[in-house]
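>> received
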Amino acid sequence: QKGELNTRRQLLLLLLEHRFGTVPVRLVLRINKLTVDDLSRLYNLALDASSLSEIDEAISDVAG
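>> returned
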């Protein structure tokens, strides 16, 4: 399960870097605290997000 968590984190970060460029360390740290389910939801949101600030906001929503 730890391997799945790391894979999902890496995929999300790759997607964000591809779409928006460098991901701020603060955002990476927030992503590192998410669960597998949270990462899955956030990945889907990231596909259509218009900015990194939208992702930052969505982390608060998915992580509760």
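>> DSSP finds four helices and no strands in the chain.
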